Amino acid sequence: MSLPPPNDRLASMFERTRAEGRPAVIIFSPCDFPERDATVEVLRAAVEGGADAIEIGMPFSDPLADGPVNQAAYDRALHEGFVPADLWAAVRQLRAEGIGVPILCMGYFNPLLAYGIEAFTHDAAEAGVDGFIIVDLPPEEASELEQATRATGLHLIYLLAPTSTDERIALAARHGSGFLYCVSVTGVTGTQEAPFADLAPFIERVRRQTDLPLAIGFGISRREHVEAAGRLADAAAIGSAFVARAGETPRDRRSDVLRAFVEGITGHGTE
Fold first, then answer.
1. CA-to-CA dists, residue 97 to 41, 46, 231, angstroms
2. What pTM, to 2 d.p., does this model score?
């Protein structure tokens, strides 16, 4: 893909976390969850707890790569009335509050296609988004989105799995930017722990094909998982464990609970 965009928040994040000798921690939560007006407070709590980047999930009716926790959260957000304008408004507010961590939109291609690829990338960039993770869009079918992201200075991040061939790894590395998202399991999110003992050969195969940073996601829910991910890769992505706490905690206690959870999983303030 093209050279990184100017003022690249992702590149700066990885430079900082590598200098600190630790993996970056990326926290996922859907937009408009648990309530339509809760997105900013939920993500603010994650950043205050030490999240290095955040992924805002774009609610979708058929999230095939997501397990039961995230599926229920997406369903709840859709019932709350989610529309893409809510996503842009949340990102703008986070940026207006001075939150400078990378913000990625994570989701599925159909809503983006319905919105219009050029319009979606333009509105995302204007709001302050740094890139996209579109879990059901392989590089072979992403040329139009790649062109649009290049034009607007956004990253397009591809997923790889332990079953990915060397040819598929090379293709994703050639077309992606920002980092590569290495899925730890051949399954959906939040249903099993990442098998770190078995991941080393997969991560080594990816390393041989690219200089891009690598993030491990799916099955990460505890501090020891982050540490294990950091011995193999450059970042750990946490979704279902965070989303479950957001959904089950009363709103008057939610920010404190989420902040404490992220502090625990990052080691923020204890090292």
1. 11, 14, 33
2. 0.92
